[in-house]
Amino acid sequence: MSDQDQPDRDEDRILAGEYALGLLSPEAAAAFEARLVREPELRDAYAAWAEDFAAMTGDIAPQQPPARVWAGIEGQLFGAARRRTGLPGHGWLWGGVSAGVAALVLVFGLGIFRPQAPVAPVDAPYLADLAAEDGSLVVQAVYDDATGTLFVARETGAAAPGRALELWLIAGEAAPVSLGVLPEEARGVLDVPEALRDRVDGAVLAISDEPSGGSPTGAPTGAVLAAGPVRGI
């Protein structure tokens, strides 16, 4: 490593920390996530920050909020009419870990899935927000490591006619591994193979544009449309 390279590395480390804390603007965060897909050293920097921040809260005992707290949040978000009917509202990417937990409750806990569809547990430990730089594709993924189940919810965007959206796991410097083609429905479930389950934490999830049925080569062949790191909740 040359002395000239070090300032850029330090700036990237600071940038990774700001991203982990949710301090970047939506545009800067999207640009950072796009770099995560192709830069292993940046993924390592983000993973180090995420591990450090998680350790700071490791000794804090979980607290169960009173029922009135949820009622108040629901009322502020949706109004009295929605609170009575239990209809979910819109808006996912509220930023920050606490907002991510609230989104999980709204999206999965209130049953936006069809009644016969599996429902993600609200205490699933891992979350990833995948978003295109222009917002044309936004997907949230919730991973339950106890069952190896990945719950995906596509907020905006869809595959182009005759094409498919394929989800990839990128762990460290390893090549992308397909987790399957996203369902045509906005929400669905993917089973993570057992051999990959211990690689999800700290990895990056990415979505590429592929032929109908998925990549014919076992590697991404089309453009990477959205990406985001997997973080603990």
UniProtKB/TrEMBL annotation:
- Where does the source fall among the domains of life? Bacteria
Instruction: Please give the Gene Ontology molecular function terms for this protein.
Output: sigma factor antagonist activity
* Tagged with keyword Transmembrane: yes
Please give the InterPro entries that the UniProt record associates with this protein. Anti-sigma-K/W_factor (IPR051474), RskA_C (IPR018764)
> What keywords were assigned to this record?
Membrane, Transmembrane, Transmembrane helix
Q: Name one GO biological process term.
A: regulation of translation
The terms describing its cellular component in GO are:
plasma membrane
Record region (Disordered): 209-233
Pinpoint the Anti-sigma K factor RskA C-terminal domain residues.
Answer: 99-224
Give the transmembrane region(s): 92-113
Here the segments flagged for biased composition (Low complexity) are: 211-223
Does Ribonucleoprotein show up as a keyword for this record? no
Protein name per its UniProtKB record:
Anti-sigma-K factor RskA
Organism equals Roseovarius azorensis
